[in-house]
Design brief:
mainly alpha; globular
């Protein structure tokens, strides 16, 4: 449950940054990236997930 809350916070933070930067392309792939990360949640720590989301958004 805590990991889900943390992932939601990370998602909100990333989305806010992308909206501020008007990065429409990254906003389009954000849901897919978050879905991929959600699948990793059970096996990984949150700091690693944050790094993964950041990396996925930079691709």
């Amino acid at each position: 449950f805590e990991r889900g809350k943390a992932l939601n916070k990370i998602t909100d933070d990333v989305k806010k940054i992308l909206e501020e930067e008007a990065d429409e392309e990254s906003l389009k792939v954000l849901p897919r990236a978050i879905d991929t990360v959600r699948k990793m949640v059970a096996f990984t720590d949150i700091p690693v997930l944050y790094t993964a989301v950041t990396h996925l958004m930079m691709e």
